[in-house]
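[[Local backbone shapes]]
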Amino acid sequence: MNSTGDAAGISLSDGSGRTRLVWYVDFTCGHTRRIRDLMLRTIDRFGQGTVALTVRFLPSQDGDRGAEVAARAAIAADRQGRYRDMHRALFAHAPHYTREDVERIAAELDLDPDRFRSDIDSPETTARIAGDVAAARDAGVLHTPFLLIDGRRYAGVWDETALIEAIEKPLGVRLALASSDFFQWAASAGLVLVIATVLALLAANLGLHDTYEHLRETAFALSIGASV
């Protein structure tokens, strides 16, 4: 997959995937570093047209500019079609970055040094990072790692099997998501109460009271042979 930069982040696919992933990255974040290659490995398991992965940057706001320097270096490398190489090199480096560090990494990757220095300081790079931070704020992203799958926050464990299941969305996952959506809907509690009230009125007016009481008093058990 060739990376291509756009206003919505760095795309690591051809953009035609039916499942849309947005991954917020901070190269200095310890948790993000522990899963540094998980996302790329997972995406590579799917063919083109299946998953569209976009990377956005959320540099830490702890006063250390190293996170922003790394994000700028990644964007500058992407302009030369080398995001993945820079991604791996930055994560292989200690989680502290200076301008000299990223320029040395760029030289080791054989990037055009003049273009790299120009791109790392360009207004477009500044605007890209500001746009990513604003998008994070709008999405309620407070920290990294953070992943959106089709606009929904991924809240599972960070391992390949769980991530692949969340992307493929088997029936059980789809039912769980639909149930979560329903019960997070502000009107869901009132709707459930109305339905329960209607069912109770029907049972009372259709002569089903005795049947209901009999069912309510019936003991149910799961048994195998003589064992309960």
In short: DSSP finds eleven helices and six strands in the chain. Residues 1-7, 170-178 have pLDDT under 50 and may be disordered. Residues 56 and 132 are 6 Å apart (CA to CA). The radius of gyration is 25 Å.
